[in-house]
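Trying the structure run again after the queue cleared.
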Amino acid sequence: MRFDWIIIILLLAALTPLFGLLLAVIWERRHREKTEKPPQTEKLLRPPGYSLSLRLEKVFDHLMDKLFISCIYSLIAGFWVVVLSFSFFLHAPFLWREICVSIFVVFVVASAMAALKAFHCFKELRNIRLGISGEQAVAEALNEVADIGFRAFHDLTEENWNIDHVAVGERGVFLIETKARRRRGSRNGLQEHKVIFDGESLQFPSYKYKDAEPIKQAKRNAIWLANYLYKKTGESVRVEALVILPGWFVRNSEKGNFPVQVMNAKYLIQFLRGQDSKIESAQVRRIITALDEKCRDVEF
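Done. Tokens:
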């Protein structure tokens, strides 16, 4: 019996660093919130991929929580293995052995479920990082056209959805939705780096079915942005919708002046430089003021 207590003490000692780390993190967060203040009160403009970066932090915290819980459950299951082994050694009643086995199974299953959730978080983190990289690629392209008067805004949020980018200048107002996709080979005979656009949907080489949602999303968001700018400025403005696929070669299967244009990030630079002037500078300034007010909400 004395040996059992020694094992329990050793297991608790093994858990002490984990519990100590958890308590230290909680205390440090609360202490920082109470004592630290930002050096300036003026809010900043949203950077590209800001919403995704916030989501990345939450998913990462969730991943660490699930890993921690899985480890705790595994240690508890290991403790009951020790108890079960001693029950055989001491010829404990059969009912006690059944209880030990049942408790062991419960904690093993709980540990496995927590580990599985952690794995799903890991896969979600990979997708979020890809989305952030895609939005950063588009932001770099928009920086290239700043010399011809374009001002870029990123991550316009509205309740539970957002607009990735808006480019504003005398050459027009362009709403840009970024769709970052990995290349996964070809399943439909298309070259693995090409996407076919028919004016209404996208055909990726790794999918058998066409994807029309990015086009519909860009249309909806363009209508919302045009209405928003009209309410803020009192002036109507045409918002042109673009879907950008960083790293892909986009080929149009149909000819026509589509309401939504699809291209990659490199061609976006050429596309914007090729536009003619459409808006007077005074109206551009009013649009920029409205968008600056909308996007300037990031705490320092």
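The helical segments are 2-35, 50-89, 94-144, 213-233, 265-273, 281-295. Worth checking whether this holds up in the mutant runs.
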